[in-house]
Design goal:
- The chain has 281 residues and is an alpha+beta fold.
- It contains seven helices and 18 strands.
- The strands form four sheets. Strands 3-2-4-1-10-9-13 form a seven-stranded antiparallel sheet, with helices on one face. A seven-stranded antiparallel sheet has the order 5-6-7-8-14-15-16.
- A hairpin with a 2-residue loop joins strand 11 and strand 12 (213-216).
- Helix 5 (133-141) runs antiparallel to helix 6 (146-153).
- The radius of gyration is 18 Å and the shape is globular.
- It starts with a strand and ends in a 7-residue tail after the last strand.
- Residues 249-280 have low confidence and may be disordered.
């Protein structure tokens, strides 16, 4: 069991530092062996920071202080890890996982069955990483479309909730859950989408005590991502759902008429852009 978290800032607003740190500290209830985050820099490169530390200690590091006192990025993903397969002392086993393709992702849950597929997919960047999380990254890195990625993911076993970003297209965030928990909340005032593993992590991150009383003032309603479902978030804010399942539960990939990253994006019922078929991711 691990914790995943993130945000997408559509406008000029950014999360308060105290909220972002609360998301990490609360997520540490799901994992204390390592903590990390990733984002795309203004220069268009993927930045990944992680360490084999629980969230409280990680948030006291120089690396976090430099980030937290600077300009926050538009999109951010984070992770708190419970070590299962792969020693947390080897930082390549910790999340976010990334490679030279420009992808970075975090997930909670379990992924199985990659050893038989590694050669088939032609992925050569595992290095000394021992975690099968690399399988999810390999599928993204060796695919041209999200549909192709999902067809590879369906060959894997297990269950996972995933957040993924890429420097190749720094204005998209991909979410997916098989049966592992994933929740989101849109803050209409701040124009920010927040994501976390559980409902309680999101509610508690925005809770404050005043005069000794607990005040839970949420800036938006919290929803859960449906099982075997993912969605794309882009600069227009439109959620485009897609179906994708790990074979540990059921097989098959299903896309609606509006294929993610391909057909069209709408905002408030107004068409704002078009793609051409299965656009590259």
């Amino acid at each position: 069991m691990c914790g995943i978290l993130g945000y997408y800032a559509f406008g000029k607003g950014r999360p308060k530092r105290e909220v972002l740190e609360a998301l990490f500290n609360l997520s540490s209830s799901r994992g204390k062996d390592a903590t990390g985050f990733a984002y795309v820099t203004p220069e268009g490169t993927m930045k990944v920071v992680k360490a084999p530390l629980e969230a409280e200690k990680f948030l006291a590091t120089r690396e976090w202080e430099e980030f937290a006192t600077g300009q926050y990025p538009k999109i951010f993903i984070g992770h708190t890890r419970t070590q299962t397969k792969g020693d947390a002392k080897n930082n390549r086993n910790n999340h976010p996982v990334s490679d030279s393709s420009g992808w970075a992702l975090v997930h909670n849950g379990e992924v199985r069955g990659y050893e038989e597929l590694e050669e088939e997919w032609g992925y050569v960047e595992r290095g000394d990483a021992e975690v099968d999380t690399i399988a999810l990254l390999a599928a993204l890195s060796t695919s041209e479309t999200l549909e192709e990625t999902c067809k590879k993911w369906e060959k894997l076993g297990g269950s996972a909730a995933i957040l993924a970003i890429t420097s190749k297209n720094p204005e998209i965030l991909i979410t997916l859950t098989d049966t592992s928990p994933l929740h989101y909340m849109y803050d209409q005032t701040g124009d920010i989408l927040y994501l976390a593993s559980t409902y309680s992590i999101l509610t508690d991150a925005f809770s404050r005590y005043k005069r000794g009383f607990l005040c839970k003032t949420l800036p938006g309603s919290i929803e859960s991502v449906k099982n075997q479902t993912g969605f794309i978030v882009d600069a227009g804010g439109y959620k485009e759902e897609f179906k994708c399942r790990l074979s540990g539960y059921s097989r098959g990939v299903s896309f609606g008429a509006n294929f993610p990253l391909a057909r069209r994006y709408t905002k408030g019922g107004r068409e704002v852009g078009k793609g051409n078929g299965a656009d590259k991711i």
